Amino acid sequence: MRIATYNVEWFDALFDAQGTPLLDGAWSRRHDVRRIDQLNALAKVFTALDADAIMVIEAPDTSRKRDTVQALEQFADFAGIRARAVVTGFLNDTQQEIALLYDPLILRAKHDQRGSDDGPPVFDSVYHLDIDTDMNRDPISFSKPPLELAMQVRETGFSFRMIGVHVKSKAPHGARNRDEEIRISIENRRKQRAQCIWLRERIERHLIAGDPLIVLGDFNDGPGLDEFEALFGRSGLEIVIGEGVGGALEDQRLFDPHARMAMAPRASAAPTTSRFFIRHENRYLSALLDYIMVSKDLAPIGAWRIWHPFDDRACYEDVDLREALVTASDHFPVTLDLDLTNVGLDLKNG
Predict the structure, then answer these.
(1) Which residues neighbour 34 within 8 Å (Cβ) at sequence distance 6 or greater?
(2) Which residues lie across from 275 on neighbouring strands?
(3) pTM of the predicted model, to two decimals?
(4) Which of 56, 152, 194, 267 is in the most buried spot, having the most CB atoms within 10 Å?
(5) How confident is the model at residue 235 (pLDDT cuts 50, 70, 90)?
(6) What pLDDT was estimated at residue 350?
(7) 283 CB burial (10 A radius; 0-12, 13-18, 19+)
(8) Residue 41: which of 66, 73, 17, 6 has the closest Cα?
(9) What is the mean pLDDT of residues 47-67?
(10) How far is CA 185 from CA 58, 173, 198, in A?
């Protein structure tokens, strides 16, 4: 079974109010890319992925006049992919939803939010955490509430949990000078870290319950990505994974090989999943932002891949796919192939 996560830049701008793909020559919201070219590129990428489930980050918007499910269903029809069913969770007002496209012949999927009075609440509520060490608990909310799903493989009945994530960006948007940039960067990192703590607490509830778990999406984070990380000790990514957990809690760590490489000594070469053009410097910046993390029971049966147009040999040698990946988004897909052949022998079945 193949699971993917893919952040599609300005996906919402490719559909009209009825969710119909805008197959015209008008400019998309991606720089110097036309809508028809981005849609054709996305169709090429989604077809190549051939995934059983794709967690779409920055999915088309749901609002009074628009509908995520309608748009993604019509995109799946346009692209001719088998992952044609759509499930969404708590909606937001950012025009960037989190949604799962999946093959309904292979999987069952439903939004199944969890929360408790004595622990982390459901993701569309407010959680109170002390994020600035002033002994006061600050209200924290997700601008894009994670999508928590109950998943089941139709053929075998194997059940697992999945959480799709788009954690807050740390970029100092709106800063007018260096002082504002520092202030906004620190404030954003506090919020980002708090969201990761909230997410980690939810993850631990699932792991303690023995749920096979996949946590995937865009975390806007990784060790060493910015100069403010030293102020907080650990990156948000390390918090989510459970880095530093040991002893009796060893089994509560998540695993992602790319994250493991990023957390190794900085002399190690780290993979990347995104490529942004820095206009005022006239260059590209690459970063590892997208992950598929799994519970310990799933790690031995998984194989990960970043569909990077220049770092992945197969992607690079397929010229059409390489160009499609560059045109489609500023992020590249990440996939996890799970060998579920003998899953019932070792893993909890629902």
Answers:
(1) 24, 25, 26, 27, 28
(2) 286
(3) 0.92
(4) 56
(5) confident
(6) 43
(7) exposed
(8) 6
(9) 96
(10) 22, 9, 20
Q: What is the dihedral of CA 218, 222, 225, 231, to 10 degrees?
A: 120
Token pair, residue 259, equals: 């994250």
Distance in angstroms (rounded) separating the CA atoms of residues 265 and 80: 43
For the segment 273-319, what is each residue's pLDDT rounded down to a tens digit? 999 988 888 899 899 999 999 999 999 999 999 999 999 999 999 99
> Nearest-5° angle of CA 21, CA 27, CA 31?
115
Alpha-carbon distance of 316 to 300, in angstroms, equals: 28
Written as one letter, the residue type at 131 is I
CATH class name, domain 2-339: alpha beta
Extract long-range pairs of 99-102: CB within 8 Å, 24+ residues apart.
99/55, 99/56, 99/59, 99/68, 99/69, 99/72, 99/147, 99/164, 100/53, 100/54, 100/55, 100/56, 100/147, 100/149, 100/162, 100/164, 101/53, 101/54, 101/56, 101/72, 101/76, 102/52, 102/53, 102/54
**Percent helix, percent strand, percent coil in the chain, to nearest 5:** 30, 25, 45
CB 161 within 8 A of CB 113: no
> Taking the CB of residue 70, how many other CB atoms lie within 10 A of it?
17
Return the number of other C-beta atoms located less than 10 Å from residue 320's C-beta: 10
Question: Tokens for 54?
Answer: 């794709």
Residues 4, 49: contact at Cβ < 8 Å?
yes
Strand partners, 5: 55, 334
Q: Are 225 and 270 in contact (CB under 8 A)?
A: no
The structure tokens listed for 175 are 């800063």
Give the tokens for residue 273: 């999943």
